[in-house]
Amino acid sequence: MTLATRSRPTLVRQVIDQLREQVASGEWPVGSRIPTEPQLVEALGVGRNTVREAVRALVHAGVLECRQGSGTYVISADEMTGAVTRRLAGAQAAEAVEVRRAFEVEAARLAALRRTPEDMAALDGALADREAAWRAGRVEDFVEADAVLHIAIVAAAHNTMLAELYASFAKTMLRPSIAAFVGDELHSEDRGGHDRLVEAIRAGDATLAAAEAGAFLEV
């Protein structure tokens, strides 16, 4: 049975899977414009309505975005990231801090149990960059170094789902959340806590690591 002779629901699902694969493989990277509807019809050998339904499904899933007069663009590599990003876009600042705490406390606990020498090297490097930015009074560099440190802690937890969810959060909310807390100038209270957190992870003390991670995210 050829692609064009399959039943409509099955055909739409197959086209959705094919389009999703183009994104997942990197052939259509995030930010790129996908082929036009006529080009997709020709390439896939299906009707316009089938292509429209498939594209509409991926738009609803947050993978694609239709821009009037410009075309359809890839905005996320997968449905989960797209859905999380859409939800976070309307989040309140207090909610963002609560979500950070939920992610980062558990990530710190797991990192203390699972960290590798490579993880610790990444944490030490990020902590050093954070310290250097603080000493120099460079707010933007400090915010970036702080974000990189927290992302490295989540990576050290070695939980793929947690890392993917946190990446979606970090893309939309992490840096703005840190920047809002820091403000326009760096102060002494911005510096503390993170060295103790890294040392707790190094020592394998899961309870202390979780406590340190939560201490500077009280809401």
Helix-strand layout with pairing:
Blueprint: H1 8-24, H2 37-44, H3 48-60, E1 64-67, E2 71-74, H4 79-89, H5 93-114, H6 117-136, H7 139-156, H8 160-182, H9 188-191, H10 194-203, H11 206-215
Antiparallel strand pairs: 1-2
Question: What's the level 1 CATH class of the largest domain?
Answer: Mainly Alpha
Q: What does the largest sheet look like?
A: 2 strands, antiparallel
What fraction strand? under 5%
| Succession of helices and strands | HHHEEHHHHHHHH
Give helix % range. Answer: over 70%
Question: What is the typical, i.e. mean, pLDDT?
Answer: 83
For the record, what is the CATH homologous superfamily label of the largest domain?
GntR ligand-binding domain-like
CATH second-level architecture of the largest domain: Up-down Bundle
Structure report:
- This protein is mainly alpha-helical.
- It has 2 domains: 3-77, Orthogonal Bundle (Arc Repressor Mutant, subunit A), CATH 1.10.10; 91-215, Four Helix Bundle (Hemerythrin (Met), subunit A) (Up-down Bundle), CATH 1.20.120.530.
- Helix content is 71%, strand content 4%.
- It has helices at 8-24, 37-44, 48-60, 79-89, 93-114, 117-136, 139-156, 160-182, 188-191, 194-203, 206-215, and strands at 64-67, 71-74.
- A two-stranded antiparallel ribbon has the order 1-2.
- This is FadR/GntR family transcriptional regulator.
- Residues 9-77 form the HTH gntR-type domain.
- Keywords: DNA-binding, Transcription, Transcription regulation.
- InterPro entries: GntR_C, TF_FadR/GntR_C, Tscrpt_reg_HTH_GntR, WH-like_DNA-bd_sf, WH_DNA-bd_sf.
